[in-house]
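Subject: sequence -> structure tokens, single chain

Hey, anyone have a minute? Need the predicted structure for the following. Not urgent.
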Amino acid sequence: MTSWIDPSKNTDSIGDGQRTVSGQQLAGALALLGPVDPVYAEVLTNLNLRVYPGDATAGDRSAYVVLDLHGVSIGVKRRAADLYLRADTTETDDRLIAFEINGGGETDLPTR
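Reply:
Had a minute. Here:
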């Protein structure tokens, strides 16, 4: 199993403290627990997880966590006054994002 990277030795990003776990690492870690459902294995193999440390001086209450899957990046961070969510679809041909918040019904948002 791949060990976690010491952020002081991280070379994936220049000076931003980013930590990254690849889909291959996630799938490998899950496989160590026993047989893996092929659906989970496929998703995990194609998923990347990035974590950027929070900045308490800027009002962050959590790290900024980004999931990359299906050409889309979804970022989440708790801040002092709100919850920040970011969806980046620039690597896809999608022209419309349909999303729902707290069961309030689906809303469509053009991407360009």
